[in-house]
Amino acid sequence: MTASKRKLRAITGFLLSSALLLASSVWPYRDTAVAAVSAEEATTLQSNLKQKLGARSESFSVVLKGKLATADVTKAFDNVFAADDYLKYAIRSYRYTVSTNGTTSTLSVNMKYWENAEQTAYVNTRSKQILASIVSKSMNAHQKVKAIHDWVLLHVAYDRSLVRHSAYDALKNGLTVCQGYASLTYRLLTDAGIPARIVEGTVSTGAHTWNLVKLDGVWYQLDTTFDDPVPDVKGRTTYGYYLVTDSALKKDHTWKSVYPQAVTSYKNTLDALMAKDKTRTAFYEDLREDMGLDYLDPSRTVSTVKEIAAKIRAAAAAGQTTAKMRYTSEAKPDLDALLKLMPELSSVSYTMESLAGGEDGDSMLTVKFKLRQ
């Protein structure tokens, strides 16, 4: 093909938000005489993308020998994202075009980020500072995960305006949506030496992100967003979505992409740890209590108003004003019926939370009450 007869081809693509969906179209003209980019050039492309995205470059070009196809670009981006979950979810959107003159191809990319380079650097610095304050050399991985989970819940609140999406927002403003929760949790876990992933799926309110955590070679699901009360309750942490299995999380989470499977009950893991690691018995016992695992025992389980009343009376006899129990009924507790059954109550209220390790429909029921004087 002579230079005068060469035609210009263009490929365009677009990626939007955390779903990372790539749509592309190819100019209908094909020149079979132009060789596709080589494996070496494909490696060069991927290396350039990794460097530019890592530096949070907003506009850049890469020139390669041969004809660059949509599949080449898609593969390169996918490989870069697969190697760095944090980077993947720091990207807000991108557009690219490919032009080919018959000998070389030029990929031109325009990026938008949830975090710029300076903001990501701030996250990296703060992550190390936070870990220095909450993690010690004597801790094992299980203690580190608990410390990280609790720090995130105690210092971050869900952004109900839905405008803050990054780990930077979580640290700088104390507000972010699920993507920021998952990104910050991922940053802290990986900086602490704990393998983690960011998982993307859906819940009843729409798109959602959370984490997978690997402990002693076993993966568990972890959702710090769902464990943080909305609206925010200062000083409060919950554990309904703490190191749970796929089957437990599927009660209200769905996902399509392939991730490591989480099939091991953390209750069984804790039982094994308590048997062999006596130096940390107090930590494991406290964690079992926090997760509500001890409430799985039938003696701490209720399903009727009459059984709830019995637990309240037992708590009152012990001088307490709060009664906690595992609740297995699908119906919400009937407070009117409870007040009729217990005329000695002057007031009563309750909260219900997911119960880690429980069956479908199980809840941790916490009843606060006052007795008539």
Automatic annotation (TrEMBL):
A Pfam family of this chain: Transglut_core
InterPro entries named among the record's database cross-references: CAP/Cytokinesis_protein, Papain-like_cys_pep_sf, Transglutaminase-like
Protein name: Transglutaminase domain-containing protein
Leader sequence segment: 1-23
Naturally occurring in which organism (per UniProt): Cohnella hashimotonis
Keyword Ribonucleoprotein part of the UniProt annotation: no
Alphabetically ordered keywords of this record: Signal
Domain Transglutaminase-like, residue spans: 170-226
Cross-referenced SUPFAM superfamilies: Cysteine proteinases (SSF54001)
